From TrEMBL:
Keywords: Hydrolase, Iron, Metal-binding, Protein biosynthesis
Family, per entry: Belongs to the polypeptide deformylase family.
Protein name: Peptide deformylase
Organism placement in taxonomy: Bacteria, Pseudomonadati, Bacteroidota, Flavobacteriia, Flavobacteriales
Gene3D superfamilies per the UniProt record, alphabetical: Peptide deformylase
Length: 196
């Protein structure tokens, strides 16, 4: 089932999300619905707060990025078929010199901005079977994981922009929160006026 994606301005996107246990109700169904929702919106990642749930879970499938001709063959192979569920994730370490990448977000349609992040991360998490993993990623894989990880910390990529960029985007972000935007997937807007 395709779930509505929560738009910028909804308080759920600002909560530090909570860990879950394997007893979490209908978790398999939620994960299946989140995959369906993410693919329907042509995203490469989706975090639970974006479907209204303040829990520490996100999904990543970087396959669409693997078709980028500017990447090396090694990078393309790394991204192709990288599909994972991250539960109760914690970034243990972030290293290297910050680099810019043009990011977007399903909760903030039509806005893309260069965001600086460190290139390498070590993350521990549970998979969908609640098996623990600690892994190190770099490049675009790290980038997508960092973006989704921010969502479970209540952080959006627009928070990381300069104060000038933020000022310039302010009215567009307000429009998004009011639903004054054309988007080809299902969304839920926090500041939509009802009955008009
Ligand atoms: Zn996002």
């Amino acid at each position: 089932m395709i779930l509505p994606i929560v738009a910028y301005g909804d308080p759920v996107l600002r909560k530090k999300a909570k860990d879950i246990t394997s007893e979490y109700p209908k978790l398999d169904e939620l994960i299946a619905n989140m995959w369906e929702t993410m693919y329907n919106a042509h995203g490469v990642g989706l975090a639970a707060p974006q479907v209204g749930l303040p829990i520490r879970m996100f999904l990543v499938d970087t396959t669409p990025f693997s078709e980028d001709d500017e990447l090396t063959e090694v990078e393309q192979k790394q991204l192709d078929g990288f599909k994972k569920v991250f539960i109760n994730a914690k970034i243990e370490d972030e290293t290297g010199k910050e680099w810019d990448f043009n990011e977007g977000c399903l909760s903030i349609p039509d806005i893309r901005e260069d965001v600086k992040r460190k290139p390498e991360i070590t993350i521990s998490y549970l998979d969908e079977d609640f098996k623990p993993h600690t892994e190190t990623y770099d490049g675009l894989l790290a980038r997508v994981i960092q973006h989704e990880y921010d969502h479970i910390e209540g952080i959006l990529f627009t928070d990381k922009l300069s104060s000038l960029r933020k000022r310039l985007l302010k009215s567009r972000l307000e429009k998004i929160s009011k639903g004054k935007i054309n988007v080809d997937y299902r969304m839920r807007f926090p500041n939509i006026k009802k009955g008009r």
